[in-house]
Amino acid sequence: MSQMTPQEIVHELDKHIIGQDAAKRAVAVALRNRWRRAQVAEPLRHEITPKNILMIGPTGVGKTEIARRLARLADAPFIKVEATKFTEVGYVGRDVDSIIRDLMETAIKDLREQDMARHKMRAEDAAEERILDALLPPARDVAYQLAAETSAKPEDSATRQKFRKMLREGALDEKEIEIEVAAMQATAQIFAPPGMEDLTSQIQGMFQNMGGGRRKTRKLKIAEAMKLITEEEAAQMVNEEDIKQRALASVEQNGIVFLDEIDKITSRNEASGGEVSRQGVQRDLLPLVEGTTVTTKYGMVNTDHILFIASGAFHLAKPSDLIPELQGRFPIRVELTSLAVGDFEAILTATDACLTRQYQALLATEGMEVNFTPDGIRRLAEIAFQVNETTENIGARRLHTVMERLLEEVSFDAGKYSGQHVSVDAAFVDARLKNLAVREDLVRYIL
Ligand SMILES: Nc1ncnc2c1ncn2[C@@H]1O[C@H](COP(=O)(O)OP(=O)(O)OP(=O)(O)O)[C@@H](O)[C@H]1O
Fold first, then answer.
1. What residue stretches are annotated with the AAA+ ATPase domain (predicted)?
2. Average pLDDT over residues 194-200
3. How many angstroms from the chain centroid is the CA of residue 247?
4. Which of 45, 183, 305, 363 would be a feasible disulfide site paired with 216, CB 3.0-4.6 Å?
């Protein structure tokens, strides 16, 4: 569990998200409260439930990003769900418990990846041996076979050592070998009747188990085989039962569910017709947020301490249009502001993985040096802002489309610019975007 103080958490979030201080503070406190709760003795600890957060703000201003970064900081299982998905016709009756099941899947996947990464070196060694066995079948490698008969761990024969060296140097990468690998598992897609998703996951699990253990000989390039077998070996080294237990604990104690578009399931904009009632969805969500037990294929998950962060623009509806029980479960309200030109400038240049740095790194791989001058950044930010104002305000997402358009030509002809220096200043930006930005008809399609 993260032991970071709220100040430290905000400091970390500042590296990725510009502004939105209130939201950062709220999530930082929520995270710290988990640690605080863990220090409280039972039985009081049991009574302390998370204070869920409602983020209010227009699209593309950092709501999801804050929640996602927080989860990453805390190494917490995270899932983003659109609340409206449960009102769609195709989802009639789809139970909201699937949120927790999906969260569990994410936790399992993350832990498995972490464990496999930990075993990577050992797995690579094992893969190397298997490939060497395929190249030099022990039966034919007389020296190896003799050694194997006399000692527990046979010494390498000279040939085997030579091949190992070549393998490590990549000299054999392109050579093809035939090697036995686990047969691909066909994943059966089963469509369950409403409310029966749990059964589906059990049936799917059964199919997967039935397919387990089957092997198949495949012809592969050594480089590919090495990758595949390393993964296979690493997968065998992880302890699935241990992962399951850790994932259950992690979801229950650290899980974060981000419920987007919560404003769209208020009854204020209730539509009639085939849709599932919005209030109905709120009622379905309530037990999850209040604390219930959900059956997953890995075991029962108690949702008492999962942190819920709901978000919405609340242009038409207000938080008070939510059913009272749900309002009470989201006591912390924070507003996120829309982004101004200055924010766009900072988003373009001041975060750890800001867009300008990304493009610089990408184009540097082609031997091109790109630099962005302050007046160039300013123009870009102004144009993005202006386009948001004249068409649809999609927040910082606009920077992606504008930036892509700006560098489209340079990106395409990168080979031509190799070894050159490209300076993106105001004139460069104007030359490529100015005319576009004033033509409203074009803007809608291009920027
Ligand atoms: N304040 C910000 N600082 C840095 N980057 C931002 C900021 N706001 C948005 N972005 C970037 O814009 C993109 C969209 O942001 P995000 O997903 O957080 O939107 P959102 O507010 O959750 O909107 P929606 O409710 O539509 O999902 C992300 O790539 C994010 O990195």
1. 49-336
2. 58
3. 16
4. 183
Q: Is the pLDDT of residue 134 over 90?
A: no
Domains of the chain (ranges, CATH numbers): 6-111+245-335 (3.40.50.300), 120-237 (no CATH), 341-446 (1.10.8.60)
Evaluate if residue 270 carries a pLDDT over 80: no
Helix (H, G, I), strand (E, B) or coil at 190: coil
- As a residue count, the chain comes to 447
Check if 13 has its Cβ closer than 6 Å to any atom of ligand 1. no
- Secondary structure element (H or E) that encloses residue 217, with its range: strand 215-221
Q: Which residues are annotated as a binding site for ATP?
A: 18, 60-65, 260, 325, 397
Of the pLDDT bands very low, low, confident and very high (cuts 50, 70, 90), residue 196 is low
**Is 411 near ligand 1, meaning CB less than 6 Å away?**
no
Q: Ligand 1 centroid to 355 CA: how many Å?
A: 13
pLDDT of residue 375: 93
312 in contact with ligand 1, CB cutoff 6 A: no
Report the candidate in 253, 236, 244, 258 with the shortest Cα–Cα distance to residue 108. Answer: 244
65 lines ligand 1 (CB under 6 A): yes
